[in-house]
Specification:
Membrane topology: Multi-pass membrane protein
Protein name: PTS fructose transporter subunit IIC
Number of helices: 15
Number of domains: 2
Radius of gyration: 21 Å
Largest sheet: 2 strands, antiparallel
Organism: Streptomyces palmae
Main location: membrane
Strand content: under 5%
Structural class: mainly alpha
Order of helices and strands: HHEEHHHHHHHHHHHEHEH
Number of strands: 4
Strand order of the largest sheet: 1-2
Subcellular location: Cell inner membrane
């Protein structure tokens, strides 16, 4: 995540990012569009995540259903406000990627497409496509609008094209495409990953912990993450060790990225360092999405680092037979008494966090041809 000037981020009224140039310029324009979305998304991640974390800390109670805030508590209202901020995070990312590519006519298609991507119930999936789906819908919306702009229309219709025709056509086309085409593989993936995990429950605890850790850290709230989490949550009563591995891996991406901003500060700009501090706080409360701004900005570097740390945490927790009796993760559940094997739980979290931080710093220090 970089500042507006340094990333070449667009201000209203400037030219689209998807125009002209050769392959190198096209790659630069693609990255600028991605960073435009990330820069607008960050406040929603930080505000939403911190409100949720504060409400859990001050109003939450450990129950068999996880950390629950009483309905009549003011902290429940604070939590609801934070959830709204998180709900807007994905469409904002998608919308401003599209906006950077094709200006204002692409904003509505991008945001609506991002909302659809985040809500799996619209395409019969138990989990949405998360921030990865938002990146896809953002670019699809942007380039779809660019294509529609090239269509020749009569002079009398030109005035209504950018404010009525293009947004309606692009929003409808993208929404239908995602619901009826892209959404089906996501629903299929969720179903088959769950079946596959069920087949692993009788194997090595370390192997299952590694797999769960990899999945938890991969898309941070997306379908793969949700599959692993719901699988662990469903076994809390009969096999709490599965949730123990998930609980140890859940805080690793935000804690690892936050730690990376502290141990190698020169690799990050001011905005990233501030986001890193918020990520540390969110990680403590088991909010994996705190790492999304880093993963969205540098997916080829950050996602593998997150997965390595998640796998390490899951393996340690699995080997130590750490148990979590509530469907929630992060250090907060151990401090509230929901974890059996607290020392090894914290050891797993620390190992995973260290692996992610060091891997992130290492991968960011290497000059690649990709971000």
């Amino acid at each position: 995540v970089v500042g507006r000037e340094g990333a070449g981020l667009r201000d209203p009224g400037s030219g689209g990012a998807g125009r002209g140039g050769g392959p190198g310029k096209a790659r630069g324009a693609t990255y600028k569009a991605l960073m435009n979305g990330v820069s607008f998304m960050i406040p929603f991640v930080v505000v939403g995540g911190l409100l949720i974390a504060v409400s859990l800390a001050l109003g939450g109670h450990t129950t068999s259903e996880g950390i629950v805030i009483p309905e009549d508590s003011v902290w429940k209202s604070v939590n609801d406000i934070g959830v709204i901020g998180f709900a807007l995070m994905v469409p904002i990312l998608s919308g401003y990627i599209a906006y950077a590519i094709a200006d204002r006519p692409a904003l509505v298609p991008g945001m609506v497409g991002g909302w659809i991507a985040a809500h799996g119930e619209l395409y019969d999936s138990e989990a949405g496509a998360g921030f990865i789906g938002a990146i896809a819908t953002g670019f699809l919306a942007g380039y779809l609008v660019l294509g529609i702009k090239k269509v020749r229309v009569p002079k009398f219709a030109r005035a209504v094209m950018p404010i009525i025709v293009i947004p309606i056509v692009a929003t409808s086309a993208l929404g239908l495409f995602f619901i009826h085409v892209l959404g089906r593989p996501i629903a299929w993936l969720f179903e088959h990953l769950t079946d596959w995990l069920s087949g692993l429950t009788g194997t090595s605890a370390a192997l299952l912990g590694i797999v769960l850790g990899l999945m938890i850290a991969f898309d941070m709230g997306g379908p793969v993450n949700k599959t692993a989490f719901l699988f662990g949550a469903g076994l809390v009563s009969e096999n709490p060790e599965v949730m123990g591995a998930c609980a140890a891996a859940i805080p690793v991406p935000p804690l690892g990225q936050g730690l990376a901003t502290l141990i190698r500060r020169r690799l990050f700009d001011d905005q990233e360092r501030e986001t890193g501090l918020a990520a540390l706080f969110m990680g403590f409360f088991g909010i994996t999405e705190g790492a999304i701004p880093f993963a969205a900005a540098r997916p080829a570097r950050v996602i593998p680092a997150n997965m390595l740390g998640g796998a390490a945490a899951g393996a340690v927790a699995g080997l130590a037979a750490v148990e979590d009796s509530v469907p929630h993760g992060g250090p907060i559940v151990a401090l509230l008494g929901a974890v059996d094997g607290v020392p090894m739980f914290f050891a797993a979290v620390l190992v995973g966090t260290g692996v992610t931080a060091l891997a992130t710093v290492g991968l960011m220090s290497v000059r690649w041809g990709v971000r």
